[in-house]
Amino acid sequence: MKIYCCIFVSVLFIGCSGISSNFISLSLPNFRYQVPHQAEVVHSEGVKIIVEPVVIEQNNNYSDYFESSVLKVRLEKELQLLKQNLEEQIATIVQLKGYERVDLNADYKITTSISVYAEETKVQQFDSFIKGDSIRSDFGFSLNGKIDFIDLHNPQNSTNFLNSAKLDSPVSLNYSIKNDDGIFLFKTTLSSVPTQLNKDLEKPAFEIDKVFLIFYKNMLNSLYLNLVNATEQRENLKKEEKGYNEFNQENSFNFD
User: Residues 110, 53: contact at Cβ < 8 Å?
Assistant: First the structure.
């Protein structure tokens, strides 16, 4: 009996030690400001613009196991942060370019859409007496974004800014899944905290983080470098108004 107890305690100790060393803390990506955080609101040009919220569309093809994994929780949190920071920085950029943000009666509008694609392949399940059940698979991930700058006086006249980022190749995943409790009291505990990952997920999570950061930076730099200043747009609007008035004053359709 004593021998049995000693063996059980030893195995339990080993199992618990494995659990404590199985997790690492990995911070979420830091979406740093690509332009000044606060921009002075400029109304002198009188060019008004509507900035719509970022729209995210997900196209996912992964297993039910991944749906319950901490990496999935982390991805959702990263998408929230990406959306939030893009909206803040886009609003700042249009103000730096001299536009006045409004909700109605605008001259221009900016819309932003992001398509997310995540795919899990080669899914295999493995059993471990100490760690419990786990999944090994390959994971691909990409982000595709479009910012539309639309002339509301002439809606078919729009400028598109396209950007994308993706993993160079699928990353290998190894993550724990839920299984029955009972004698395996020392099984690996599943985390639902996006910054607490299984050690085996550290490298793939880091590679996915890089995709988010590259995409974020490229989207904002593209808009900042290519969005025409409100001063120039004001001149374009004046030319359009002048041309329209001149056309109305002509008797172009009088055949008498």
Answer: no
Three-class DSSP category at 123: strand
Q: Are strands 196-198 and 23-25 parallel, antiparallel or unpaired?
A: antiparallel
How many Å apart are CA 85 and CA 34, to the nearest integer? 10
Q: Rounded CA gap, 64 and 203, in Å?
A: 22
Burial of 54 (0-12, 13-18, 19+ CB in 10 A): buried
Give strand pairing partners of 150: 109, 158
Neighbouring-strand partners of residue 164? 144
Helices (H), the chain: 2-20, 64-67, 70-96, 202-226, 230-249
In one letter, which amino acid is 15?
G
**pTM attached to this predicted model:** 0.81
Q: Which residue has the tokens 């996006």?
A: 194
- Render pLDDT for 121-172 as a digit per residue (tens, 0 to 9): 999 998 865 567 889 999 999 999 999 999 999 988 899 999 999 999 999 9
Separation of alpha carbons 238 and 99, rounded Å:
16
| Cα distance between residue 141 and residue 151, in whole Å | 33
Extract the tokens encoding 102.
């409004």
Contact (CB, 8 A) for 35 and 217: no
Question: Is 117:139 a contact under the CB 8 Å cutoff?
Answer: no
